[in-house]
Amino acid sequence: DQQVKQNSPSLSVQEGRISILNCDYTNSMFDYFLWYKKYPAEGPTFLISISSIKDKNEDGRFTVFLNKSAKHLSLHIVPSQPGDSAVYFCAASAQTGANNLFFGTGTRLTVIP
Amino acid sequence: DSGVTQTPKHLITATGQRVTLRCSPRSGDLSVYWYQQSLDQGLQFLIQYYNGEERAKGNILERFSAQQFPDLHSELNLSSLELGDSALYFCASSSGTGEKLFFGSGTQLSVL
Fold first, then answer.
1. How far off is chain A from B34, nearest CA to CA, in Å?
2. pLDDT tens digits, one per residue of A11-28
């Protein structure tokens, strides 16, 4: 049972435009959400996180939005750059902390120069 | 470089065999996590150790076991291997209380 879902396996965006990656979850106990980025032949690297007490968190070009009622979060990248091309994983946990993170299946973002 | 080291990077073996994957966490990190990523799947949590003790268990098969040693490195043992065990196995570490996991580059296991 996939508790964290990323329904778009891939996304292509022109350089300079906005990239929006979406994630849905089913477990209402999740209270902490993270985005990880993964390049080929490397492990995932932490990108940005948000706790359930917030609905938005921003870090430079990256913003994560959380809609608890819809059990939906999204990652916005503005402006998108070719170096952002990677696989992005959404993850969630039922307590603040890294115990037992549940990951989505990932979205492959391609930023076209 | 995340500071988490996994060896070997690639492993090819046959069904029925047993393999050991090794992980050295970031300096100072007490928690080690093991994840499995099969084709087109997300990262599936297998098991977590904290300072030598098992802390949490996920979807880990009985044929799989892990341990964390006094020097904090960890090993994941996979036995009676099946074709379906072919996957990318990631190790991650954290300070134990932090939210971020730092991942190694993974071990690609191919069972033929």
1. 10
2. 999 999 999 999 999 999
